[in-house]
Amino acid sequence: MVGIAGAIAYIANGTANGSYAQMVAPGHKICVAPMMEWTDRHCRYLHRCLTADALLYTEMVTAEAAIRGDRERLLAFDAFEKPVALQLGGADPTRLAEAAKIGEGFGYDEINLNVGCPSDRVQSGRFGACLMLEPELVADCMAAMREAVSLPVTVKCRIGVDEQDPQTAARRLIALSKAAGVSTFVVHARKAWLSGLSPRENREVPPLDYDLVHALKQENPELTIILNGGIETLDDAARELAHVDGVMIGRAAYQTPAILADVDARFFGGETGDLDAAVRAYLAYVERELARGVPLNAMTKHMLGLFNGRPGARLFRRHLSENATKHGAGIAVLREALQHIHHPHEAAAA
Known about the structure:
The protein is α/β, with parallel strands linked by helices. The protein has two domains: about 5-265, TIM Barrel; about 275-350, Four Helix Bundle (Hemerythrin (Met), subunit A) (Up-down Bundle). The chain is built from 18 helices and eight strands.
């Protein structure tokens, strides 16, 4: 695999001509979950500095926003982020097909339909987790998107909602979408409660049912089944890969992103992670984006958990929290923050 050395060489070229991206093949063994207000393009760039091989996902973009909104702001990404999947939200097959076609034009590697988000805002738009109640509609949406694009089209779902029996609900949704030609499913191994629990509680309170997800794979050996929910360490991921095709890591990847530095060596036969090299690569990116007018905090906020557990991490976070949001904050703020970390990076002192 290309690894971090390739990443730094790519950045040094100063262009996003796609040549680096063509060297990386998408796969689902380890994925980083789509997370609203977290996995924006800056977050994904940082994650790609840490792992060349994990599949990254965008925040959810509604079909209507993709069609009618500021596409460059919502959908544009750096080729260095690849492989990267676009997650769409919606429930109208025609509009989703149009949005998928737009996403294909931007160069994404996969289009994913959100059938898992339990927020009130998403429910009011009749999509997300509430679509677990309409598996026939989900299948229609998937069929329309598959017809519109040549990319893989996938589903991210729950095992059920509210009073549904997960043993029935999950199997029916998968069976109908499978009949529509879908071959890859990301299954969050929890039910969602559409009333009574907040979105945060829906990520923590309903019990995990890994056994059901394992059974879904056993019953559908020809499908790619990725397990999501409750994965906190790479040891957790390795354990689950004995039962499913892939693992999707969510909050753990965001809150302690350094775990991604070991993904390539452990799961893809790639290079051993080098956190210093990843930071140097991201520093170069931050400098470039600052020159384009991107506020420093938009990029450094994704780094706050990067050194968790390491001496100086608290001071690093504090320095960024207090200074990166200031008007005109520049690269010096990040370099100063890095000086708090023991064994500071040479790039930070340059």
